[in-house]
Design a protein that fits this description.
CATH topology of the largest domain in chain A: MetI-like fold
Shape of chain A: globular
Oligomer: heterodimer
Radius of gyration of chain A: 23 Å
Number of helices of chain A: 11
Order of helices and strands of chain A: HEEHHHHHHHHHH
Helix content of chain B: 25-40%
Structural class of chain B: alpha/beta
Radius of gyration of chain B: 19 Å
Largest sheet of chain B: 6 strands, mixed
Order of helices and strands of chain B: EEEHEEHEHHHEHEHEEHH
CATH superfamily of the largest domain in chain A: MetI-like
Number of domains of chain B: 2
Shape of chain B: globular
Strand content of chain A: under 5%
Chain lengths: ~290, ~270
């Protein structure tokens, strides 16, 4: 049991190590000015500025962000990551609500399925960058009693706009997963749509729901980071990526810390969904076989 | 009052083929009466409409014309009033529920209190001999055990009619014979009428009071064979029943009804 649990971790660590090795290998062997053919850069430059040593980047993460005293880079990144993760979680919850609701409507009404699906697909072709200022502008005009609309809420809305799509599609597939025999059985019991949903369709949809949540969590994080950059929201990892990249010419190793932070965030999100899957393992028995 | 009364039922399916739609006459002017407590087997080659007929009785499909009544009610009302229990070829158990929870399902769907549900489920699980397995999940059971759970589930609400569509079709011969014996015992205990779809002649003869023989294209009832019962008490002597002359005579009668019809089928079709 323990050996089986440790193996994926081992392979994961091996993968990171291989990536670092490939990075250093190219840095050592590649031409300093990269490979350029006809003005197009095919392979990147290998100068300290473009590709700092892996150990330099790691070491830089454990030095103060600015000056010689003050907050370490990793602490700053961790703090930003926590905020971004919170925003992404809000976006994911919102996206999941909308996605599951859409799936339910599309399952219930064939007409809704046919009418809405093209729009859903269309919605995902709108570039996020174009959307961000609009959402911020709309949010600024909102007045919800005592609630003050804040920048991070716009970011969460944008993240949910990305996350709802895989969840809607995945859940719809899950809701349609039950065998004809199960549907016949429920019809023979003389129960209606609601009970069939509660006792058959929803439980049967759990495996699809989980895998679409995993996808949705990843897109929510990407959406949050991109939205933080394009709305200029403060305090998140998106902001940090921009800030540290701007100091890139003098401090190239620093810029990689928030990017690594974003990757770790993705892993944490996937881990949380996996935990949910563990709690729902009875509904995934068919999957395991 | 009879348990099932099918009169002049025709069922036409539209089959969409490459271009245009064709129609298939799955059932053509079929009439059948099943008395209360009677065990009727429907037998015939594939495509003869035996499963379709059962689905019409269960109101899982609607007839194109004709009338289906279950305990005097229209099929739809009978379904909504849960007048029958049903079991399919695949056990149709919900994989995320334990054996007990699967048996409880019909009761839960109809809002029975949890304590009643549990008591009834335990009673039924004992009836089908799976008490030790009550907390297992279906994937931990053999095919035969899964079918027993399905039968227990079908019995959950004390139906006076059981509809069974080849419930033992996917099982090996030995498990199959054992479950046939158990089904007869359960049926003797509950006194329910049974409509049992099968394509096995010995199975039909062993189980049924009456074997209804059907033929395909279009699906029709071609013959009815009343099964001869040897003067042996049902129960542990299942194998003895299968070896009596009466059993063999009935098997022969059903076989002839099935095969004789096949030769006559083309002429029958022309006559229409």
């Amino acid at each position: 049991m323990r050996a089986r649990g440790a193996q994926p971790l081992l392979f994961g660590a091996l993968g990171v190590l291989l990536l670092a090795l490939a990075w250093e290998l190219y840095k050592a062997l590649g031409p300093a000015e990269g490979v350029v053919i006809g003005g197009t850069v095919l392979l990147p430059r290998t100068t300290e500025l473009a590709m700092p040593h892996v150990w330099d980047s790691v070491a830089r993460a454990f030095e103060p962000a600015t000056g010689s005293a003050g907050e370490l880079v990793v602490v700053a990144v961790a703090r930003a990551a926590v905020q971004t993760l919170g925003t992404a979680a809000m976006g994911l919850v919102l996206g999941a609500l909308v996605g599951v609701l859409l799936a339910l409507v599309m399952q219930r009404f064939r007409l809704a399925d046919r009418a809405m699906l093209p729009w859903l697909i269309l919605s995902q072709t709108v570039p996020l960058i174009a959307l961000a200022p609009l959402v911020v502008a709309w949010g600024g005009r909102l007045e919800l009693g005592a609630l003050q609309w804040e920048r991070w809420m716009s970011v969460a809305v944008i993240a949910s706009y990305l996350a709802f799509f895989p969840i809607a599609i995945g859940t719809l597939r899950g809701l349609r997963a039950p065998d004809q025999e199960h549907l016949d059985l429920f019809r023979a019991q003389g129960v209606g749509w609601w009970r069939t949903l509660r006792y058959l369709r929803l439980p049967a949809a759990v495996p699809q729901l989980l895998s679409s949540l995993r996808l949705g969590a990843a897109t929510a994080i990407v959406g949050t980071v991109v939205a933080e950059v394009s709305t200029g929201a403060r305090g998140g990892i998106g902001r940090l990526i921009v800030e540290y990249a701007q100091s890139g010419s003098s401090d190239p190793a620093k810029a990689w810390a928030p990017i690594a932070g974003a990757v770790v965030m993705g892993l944490v999100a996937a881990g949380i969904v996996a935990l949910a899957g563990l709690a729902l393992r009875d509904y995934r028995r068919a999957e395991a076989r | 009052m009879s348990a099932v009364e099918v009169s002049g039922v025709t069922k036409v399916f539209e089959v969409r083929s490459g271009r245009g739609a064709a129609t298939v006459r799955a059932l053509d002017d079929v009439s059948l009466t099943v008395a209360e407590g009677e065990f009727v087997a429907l037998i015939g080659p594939s495509g003869c409409g035996k499963s379709t007929l059962m689905r019409l009785i269960a109101d899982l499909d609607e007839p194109s014309s004709g009338d289906v009544r279950v305990f005097g009610m229209p099929a739809r009302r009978a379904r909504l009033e849960r007048a029958y229990g049903i079991a399919f070829q695949q056990s149709g158990l919900l994989p995320w529920r334990t054996v007990r929870a699967n048996v409880e399902l019909p009761l839960q769907l109809h809002g029975a209190p949890a304590a009643d549900r549990r008591a009834r489920a335990d009673e039924l699980i004992e009836l089908v001999g799976l008490t030790e397995f009550a907390d297992r999940h279906p994937d931990q059971l053999s095919g035969g055990m899964q079918q027993r759970v399905a039968i227990a589930r079908a019995l959950a609400e004390h139906p006076r009619l059981l509809l069974m569509d080849e419930p033992f079709g996917a099982l090996d011969e030995m498990t199959r014979e054992r479950l046939q014996g158990e089904l007869l015992r359960i049926r003797a205990e509950t006194g329910a009428a049974v409509v049992f779809v099968t394509h096995s002649i010995p199975e039909a003869v062993f189980l049924a009071d009456r074997v209804v023989v059907m033929s395909p294209r279009p699906g029709r009832i071609t013959d009815t064979v009343a099964v001869e019962r040897a003067p042996i008490a049902a129960g542990p002597a299942d194998d003895a029943v299968r070896e009596t002359d009466a059993f063999f005579r009935s098997v022969t009668a059903v076989r002839e009804a099935l095969h004789g019809r096949e030769g006559a089928a083309p002429r029958g079709a022309e006559a229409r």
